[in-house]
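Hello,

Our lab assistant flagged a job as stuck in the queue for most of the afternoon. It eventually completed. Since we weren't sure the result was trustworthy after the delay, we are filing this so someone can double-check. Below is the sequence as submitted and the structure that was eventually returned. Let us know if re-running is recommended.
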Amino acid sequence: MGLDMYLTGKQYLWRDEEQPKRKEIAEVLGVDNYEVNEVRFDLMYWRKANAIHGWFVNVVQNEVDDCGEYEVEREQLEALRDLCKEVLDTRNTETLPPTTGFFFGEGEVTDYYWEYLQDTLDGLTKLLIDPDSKKMAFYYQSSW
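-- returned structure --
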């Protein structure tokens, strides 16, 4: 048990001009009687990165920590990327403090804290410059 965190991207296939694509995807999956309405992509995964989780809870989830799936705006991911860079550069952890919770890992700044911030910075930087990501809606969900 522990805090698992997922950032996913979804590309919706709603429009009429995407009808052939929807059927083609269903055929590839071996499901001939149904149409695919969305494709989901696993973009990032964290384990016990409680400071990052705390940011999502406070900024995206309106301080509700219920393991629900929440839509994340691209601008919010850009803000998180920039915040991680700022904290890594300044070593000021007050703006992105560790968060405590049931099986959330260490509630203090450790080497893991810095590693999670660097991984988040690297992952979001790569994601946000990828032109394919502009076709996606983003979602965050945690499990603990």
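-- support follow-up --
The delay was a queue issue, not a problem with the job. The result is valid. The chain is about 40% helix and 20% strand. Residues 4-143 form one domain.
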